[in-house]
Specification:
alpha/beta; Rossmann fold; 3 domains
């Protein structure tokens, strides 16, 4: 005998409309919900308390991620209320480092659709498909092709967790209305054979699209974005090095777009360096920067650092001589014949050190920046060498997720006798060395890109200009308090992310107005106007 089930009204199936137990008696009667919900009418605050009670009873980070994802797919207002009220606790769950595991298990854990997947089979129809998703109301698009997800490599369509996570932070930290956000994955295949052969993999089981076919697919996609979502900001995310710089150069003059891995990381890194100089008392132009890694993150930080050093009076040549990069094949020096255009730009005229340790001995850096994706690269020997090369060495272990961090906070402090100024891409717990407790900050792009997006969207910026990222870095540096510095923190606590985003947005929008790039008149009080523009998760 079959049991009859009442159809679920549409309002309960739309995450941005659903209020669950917060629907009033009048709502329930009007919307045909009578009898479908428990009798008690709750407030948003009461609902949020229940969510946190349940969430704190879950121990595994990936299970907490899945619980919150289910909530986001059911009641988006409640999801963002919970997230906004518990940023410090929940950002590591909805984004780095837990999102890395979520991407690795994306196909296995898949439950319901979120975001948009486009494949080369959609050629000729991309604009029509985009038109199904909010029309001109869309203001922020984050797109990946899954080519280089965090430090995990080519995950193909499993990389969708990244644009979803980025846009979650755009809303939680910067107040971008979630109805105006669209995550997109361009499934162009994957070269990771284990993923292609996975019985549960949901993407195209083909090698990556390359060459002219890839370029033509991307060109149609970008053209469609301009046509269907005029004025939207497009963020390129987690493309591999081969494509990241090419796409940024190809499209930055055509529409309002940026690459967070290059420009966002660059601004975040510059802010961390500037703040470290507040601790040491020196200037950035006095530092020597050794980069373990020569991909988008390292080169992005290097370019920002060079610009800042030049503003302090160095020539470009002098500034570049203070930044040495090493990739998987060794130091980036001019005698190498295998360098890409972007690496040739930063190559040194010197005898190549044979190892990272030799580079520290020869170059004598005061700053060591890890963007290598090689967990444990900064060994005790390397960290001790940095402690000898500089009185207060700056150690930035930026690779994500946690398993890819070049060193832990405890290792950095212990092997430099507590003298290191440390920050990392993934969070680490406080460390006590010689009766002093350090609370290292998380060196994550989430301090930059949400505010950049807010500033661009609010000002109606036509293009993204480099001074916007310099201004964003300066704004972030100003948000670090003396108390943060006392705790060894070069970034603010994540509980202040909304304030950070508002400050960064004001700086970015200010550049748009000053450079004639804005699409609206400058308001009398920009800070107040931005705050009023920010989405608040409340039932209306």
């Amino acid at each position: 005998m079959q049991t009859a089930h009442a159809p679920i009204p549409a309002v309960l199936r739309v995450p941005l409309a659903n209020r669950g137990t917060a629907f009033t008696d009048r709502d329930r009667e009007h919307l045909g919900l009578a009898g479908l919900l428990p009798p008690r009418v709750e407030t948003l605050v009461e609902q949020a308390a229940r969510v946190m009670e349940n969430l704190r009873g879950i121990t595994a980070p990936i299970e907490r991620y899945l619980y919150l994802s289910a909530l986001q797919n059911e009641n988006e207002t409640l999801f963002y209320r919970v997230l906004l009220d518990n940023l410090q606790e929940l950002l590591p769950i909805v984004y780095t480092p837990t999102v890395g595991q979520a991407c690795q298990e994306w196909s296995l854990r898949y439950v319901r659709p979120r975001g948009l997947y486009l494949t080369p089979r959609d050629r000729g129809h991309i604009a029509r498909i985009l038109g199904h998703f909010g029309g001109s109301n869309i203001a922020m698009v984050v797109v990946t092709d899954g080519g280089r997800i965090l430090g995990l490599g080519d995950l193909g369509a499993n990389g969708m967790g990244i644009p979803i996570g980025k846009l979650t932070l755009y809303t939680a930290c910067a107040g971008i209305d979630p109805a105006r956000c669209l995550p997109i994955t361009l499934d162009v295949g994957t070269n990771t054979e284990s993923i292609r052969n996975d019985a549960f993999y949901l993407g195209r089981r083909e090698p990556r699209l390359t060459g002219p076919a890839y370029d033509e697919f991307l060109d149609e996609f970008v053209t469609a974005i301009q046509s269907v979502f005029p004025g939207a900001v497009l963020q390129f995310e987690d493309f591999n090095n081969e494509h990241a710089f090419h796409l940024l150069g190809r499209y930055s003059g055509r529409l309002c777009c940026f690459n967070d891995d290059v420009q966002g990381t660059g601004a975040m890194g510059l802010a961390g360096l500037n703040t470290a100089c507040r601790i040491t008392g020196g200037r950035l132009s006095d530092q020597r920067l050794l980069f373990a890694g020569a991909g988008q993150a390292a080169l992005g930080i290097g370019e920002m650092a060079v610009s800042a050093m030049r503003s302090e009076g160095l020539t470009e040549g002098e500034a570049r001589s203070r930044c040495l990069f090493m990739d998987s094949k060794g130091a980036i020096v001019t005698e190498r014949g295998d360098l890409s255009k972007h690496k040739r730009r930063v190559a040194h005229h010197m005898e190549a050190p044979s190892s990272l340790g030799d580079a520290i001995t020869a170059f004598k850096p005061s700053v060591l920046i890890g963007a290598s994706g090689q967990g444990g690269l900064f060994t005790s020997t390397i960290l001790k060498a940095m402690g000898e090369a500089a009185h207060r060495p700056v150690i930035l272990a930026l690779s994500n997720p946690t398993s890819k961090a070049e060193c832990t906070a405890e290792q950095a402090y212990a092997h430099t006798h507590g003298q290191a100024i440390f920050a990392s891409g993934s969070p680490f717990d406080p460390v006590t060395i010689a009766s002093r407790t350090f609370s290292p900050g998380q060196a994550n792009n989430s301090y930059i890109f949400p505010g950049v997006g807010l500033g661009l969207i609010y000002s109606g910026a036509k293009r993204v200009a480099r001074p916007m990222f310099i201004a964003a870095a300066q704004a972030l540096t100003r948000m670090v308090t003396e108390e943060d510095l006392r705790l060894g923190r070069v970034f603010p606590p994540q509980s202040k992310m909304r304030d950070v985003a508002a400050s960064v947005a004001e700086a970015v929008a200010g550049v748009a107005f000053d450079h004639g790039l804005a699409g609206i008149p400058r308001p009398v009080n920009l800070a107040e106007a931005l705050r009023g523009f920010m989405y608040q998760p409340e039932y209306h």
